[in-house]
Amino acid sequence: MQIKSSFNKIDNVVISGGTHGNEATGVYLIEEWEKDCSFLKRNSFETDFFCSNPRAVDLNLRYTETDLNRCFLDKDLEDESAVSYEELLAYKIKNNLKKNYAGKTTLLVDMHTTTSNMGINIMCDDEAPNLLLAAMVKHRLPEVHVYCIKKSDRTDSCLRSSGTYGIGIEVGPIPQGILRHDVVESMRKAVAAVLDIAHEINTGGADETPFSIEYFSHIAEVAYPDGPFGDAMIHKDLEGRDYEILHPGDNIFYGAECGNIQYEGKEEVHPVFINEAAYYEKGLAFSTVKKEHREFKLLK
Ligand SMILES: [Zn+2]
Question: Where does the record place the AstE/AspA barrel-sandwich hybrid domain (predicted)?
């Protein structure tokens, strides 16, 4: 089945960095653009950018009280008992976006990094406009992985869901809190591709010929058998092998007491976010995705 969609004219592209305060790449680029934003200019829309969690950035922490990128569900924003710094910040960001872009079509692009060996990823929900946009980025930059998660409270709680359209860019591997030239370049390249595609959609320059790409759909999260920093760690056979094939029976954990532990799923899957530092606090070791292959088409 073909995945097809049209887009409203995009009035504003809004780029955020620092949603996780210890992901320095996005913060660096926001600061670069504050000095000179000519890189972001396309003449069919305005491009704005902001640092979304400055307090966490100052402290070099993912967040200070709660993960900002899980605070954007409308029902949570209306919850009067929501009092953490990030819950209030999400409320403020969403209200500002509503006020500043009333009646406009916005594309929100949220910049993230991962400690996992995942390369450049476009993160999106599985609904046509966002997934088509992500597919168009992959069509232009074949090295990109498209990682989609079924539209749900999980995707709607992300900052990127606050735009008419929204995608995340996730680049790795890079440790938390540090800068790497190659990762900055990858992020810049992905941002430029998104801006070029938005401009082509607006001006009728985008190719409407159907095209096929591979992308990945989220299946599940896999927890450490005994919690984070227990006996089991990611097995050396799995380490760094994001997006490769994981077969039933392959080694996934090793521990001095537990020995080798194998993957007990019934089917081949692709592991991602392997040994992601940010997920230790949740006890998550990696996630699994499945490869999909579809035809996409941009409608006028
Ligand atoms: Zn992040």
Answer: 212-291
